[in-house]
Amino acid sequence: MVAENVDLLNRDPNNLNDQIQVMFDDVIGEPEGAHSIDCVFKLAYTCYNLCKALAYKITTCLYGCPLAIFWGCLFAGIAFCHIWLCTPTFKVLALNCSLCRKCFTMCVDCIYGPLCETYALCFSRIRVTNASE
To answer: Is the model's pTM score more than 0.85?
Structure first.
């Protein structure tokens, strides 16, 4: 849990944000026949990249730590609920459903078992023959 172990080169090792394409070439493209003056395009490239970097750094400085605290607390709460509430509740349900299943199976075997055997014996004596003309 020490910040010394953070990989500062690959900050998205699980590729969580592959859908975010925000490089200049991903956003701005001039097709053939619609080219601006070269110096304008180069200046636009520089302005875009500088403003994007500055705006991102400012917003992460202002909101990065508070949002990290929020998300950390939220996922801790979710983990707590799953560990201490959901899993034990499902265990109780599984135990009770097992008992209900045994009762239901016993009732079905006692009531419908003999009926099915009786019908099977009655219908087993039926013979079907195919008569050709």
So the answer is: no
